[in-house]
Amino acid sequence: MGSANHIRLVAGIYFILILSQAAAQQEQWLQYHSEREARLIGGGIGMHGLEVSSEKPSGVRLPQFKGKNQFFAKWSTPMVKSGYLWVLLDRERKYGVHDTLYIDSNGNGHLNDEESVKSYRLDQYSAYFGPVKVIFEVEDGLVSYHLNFRFYNRRDYTRLYVSSGGWYEGDIIVGDSKKHCVLFDYNTNGTFNDKSLQSVSCDRIRIGKMNSQDTRYVGNYIEIDGTLYRPEIARDGAFIKLTKAKDVKFGTVRLPETITEFSAGGENGLFTFNPEKGIGTLPVGKYRVNFWAAERKDEKDTSWRIKGSNFGDKNIYFDITEDKETQLSPGEPINAALSVNQRQSLFSFSQELRGRNGERIELTRNGTRPRAPKLQIKSEDGSYERTFSFEYG
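RESULT FIELD:
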């Protein structure tokens, strides 16, 4: 009898352990990090400009100023009730670069109770601050968040640039494998789960090897090792849940058969695939072209690749509808443009490749940039003839 009870007890404990492990896999917690150069971590964090004003904000209690004039800005975030936090730029001396920053770190709408932040770097027109800590109140308590600032002030131009100074990362279990997950607040609004059709307005995620640079858009889906998952990301970035996507509706996109790689993103996330005879599939939804690429070999078996991206104002949007085909026409022809600028007797030349929709073209030869093209200049009477080499950058 005692032995039977012991068996039931062990079995019960084992059952509880299985349940607790399953629950832990549902919410996989990540660790928060902050860094002055956080924006340099593989392009996962964007830089955003804030309008500044010299007019003192009404109803805001302010610290005692030291400089002759000050500047004020609003940093927008949905993590506080007001929807924004005030930022103030002052300086230690009456004149000079604004080297002191205040931010409403506790979200009470005032600045007179805040500690000043001194710039860690100054140059002729700029002051750099960070990482500057703010505190958000969430359901589970208080969480920290960090911002990095660059204040640019010139007579004809004044702007406060801000980027996220923090990110979350850690190991998670995906299926039967351990992966490394990194979350970035790309649009720098204090949250880590923003989805958008516009690439500048959605956050970023990586799931793969420790030092993977495969950065995707945060979206409704993410593909990992050929399996489609639905990610659920905590608003403050503290954890992620991954569920295998079921009953997903797909549509077809038809591309020119010369396209060997295609990438598009939106609220569904970011997808990159290699079309088969110009055909690819995507979950139903609205997308924006991220990039396209075409690769082929010449008679010497040299691999040439062109990649079109950065469409500017000519973004290409398209809809994927269930069981229907959407036809797109990215790719060639490629236009080579030469521009000439003259300042007194000095001429400068620049050359660039552009796609049919104004996208920037990157050309590689066997995976590396070929030599820059040459420019030959010859006078009409033949008395002057020289050849110059362009340089990248």
